[in-house]
Amino acid sequence: MASVVVTALLVVVLAAWAASIGPSGVLRGEGPSPAGTPTLTQSASASAGQGTTVDTPAEPRGAPPWVRAFALLVDLAVVGGLVLLAARYGVVPAVRSARRRRARRRRTTEHLEFPVLEPPAAVAREMLADASTQRRLLAEGGTPRNAVVECWHRFETQAAAAGLARGAWETSSEYTMRVLDLVDAHQPAVTRLGELYREARFSEHELTEAHRQDALDALDTIHRTIGLTAGADTGTGVPG
């Protein structure tokens, strides 16, 4: 759009300039003479032999003042029209588009502010509400191996119930670690319970009641530290 406007403006200015100064100011020189017509030099030489004087033709006068004034008015009118067209179809749409983009960014930012703040408290409340059931399953459920695996997977169930979805790029362990990190669970206890889960899940040797007790201690610590985060929002702590 800018290129078209500038090109049209240059054409108009050149046309107005040519009209204002007349053709003699644009094209200099006499140009070629038609065939059979004596040139000024030839006429002067022939007349000199006869003793006559040849007057040199006078330069044509420029355009009348009213023509120049009219050309200037036309020039200004065209320039003004081109500026209005550029503003109407170039500047104004660009400004409107920029405003729409800023409005969309504001709406997107306002929409994303709430999920950033809400999930930690929601997940923490869900974990605390399920804490007694999770502990009972670990203490009384089946073999130590199965109980530890079920305890670890329970964190995924709690997070899903709170509305925190698992990412397509995440493994089960990565998802659980992200959930526990989100609620600021005690890191050493999370690490210990994760080690017991991997041992129960992938090892071939039997897990003992000592492993179950270690898992219970780590789980109790996790629940206590979750209570520090959720208690500020709900006024409650870990169920007794």
For the secondary structure, the number of strands is: 0
Shape: rod-shaped
- The separation of the N and C termini measures 73 Å
Annotation field: number of helices:
9
Beta-strand percentage? under 5%
Q: List segments where confidence is low: pLDDT < 50 over at least 5 consecutive residues.
A: 111-117, 231-240
Our Rg estimate from Cα atoms comes to 46 Å
Q: Give the SSE string.
A: HHHHHHHHH
Main sheet overview: none
* Helix/sheet category: mainly alpha
- Helical fraction equals over 70%
pLDDT average, as an integer?
75
Give an overview in words.
The two termini are 73 Å apart. The protein has 9 helices and no strands. The chain has 240 residues and is mainly α. The protein has a domain at 125-234.
Furnish the topology, listing elements before pairings.
Elements: H1 2-21, H2 23-26, H3 40-50, H4 65-129, H5 131-140, H6 144-161, H7 172-182, H8 187-202, H9 209-234
Helix pairs in contact: 1-4, 4-9, 5-6, 5-9, 6-7, 6-8, 6-9, 8-9
